[in-house]
Amino acid sequence: MHPLAERLVRGDTRALARALTILENDLEGKRGLLKSLYPYAGRAHVVGFTGAPGAGKSTLVDRVIGHLRERGLTVGVLAVDPSSPFSGGALLGDRVRMLRHSGDSGVYIRSMGSRGSLGGLAKSTGEMLYALEAYGCDVVLLETVGVGQAELDVMSVADTVVLVLTPGAGDQVQTAKAGIMEIADVFVVNKSDLPGADLIVREIWMMLRDRRQFREDWRPPVVKASAARGEGLADIWDAVTAHRDHLLRNGHWEARRRRRHERETLRLLEAAVCAQLARRAERDPAWRAVLSDHRGLDPYQAAERLLAGLPRLDDVTPE
Q1: What are the CA-CA distances from residue 158 to residues 78, 214, 309 (Å)?
Q2: If residue 278 lies in a helix (H) or strand (E), which one and from where to where?
Q3: How many CB atoms lie within 10 A of CB 140?
Q4: Is residue 290 one of the residues assigned to a domain?
């Protein structure tokens, strides 16, 4: 076992912090570390909180942490903030809202920048989950960047997706759109003390009533809450655990884990192939000639010509 992973599994917080830094920044030793961490994958219930900017996700996650600690559960948090397209930096303000948990040994919070990833999460989020699971977290909460309708990465990482909505944020248009509305396993109407909360609840129920098919035969519940007042937390967690029980009872939990493994493997394969192609494009004069011929070849013709010189994958038989 990797020495850092060995310390991490024993509950060494400093080892966890170092491991997360290695994974987030692609530092030396990452491959060996992941190999040691992977056997611990799948132990935690991973819950993703997503929604538009200003929906109150950070405050809600902060309150949920407290609720879970009252139940004796250990909690890991990965909170993603948008990175600047110019400097690459990120404010990491989510951590500020969760400062009251900083002295709790049963909570580990990591903020990180999205670093150009457009799906609501950072590229290394899935790998960092392995470290938190090996560390022994019962629950891992993911807080996405404030997302739009098409930023759906959280669906491929979380076991349960909680979509946080608020009154007065274009309710009818919000519920009519596809995309992020369709990946929610639990709807939470936050700031329910504001006017319009009951309206958006009705809009969601109407949308669900008209839906012909539900993913994994699960009809998402709609929960009203007020994170600022600490209201609705038990109802939220009851809905989340009911979803987990449904997945386990009907075989969907293992199916999700399998699909996650497939996606991660294909993502790594794609990255490796792209890197090989980029290296060849830099070094092979024949490839350079094709790539540079912007007047004689359109991009499709250029790609077809380059592909013609590569072995077809269906012709390659593994030894």
Answers
A1: 12, 17, 40
A2: helix 252-283
A3: 25
A4: yes
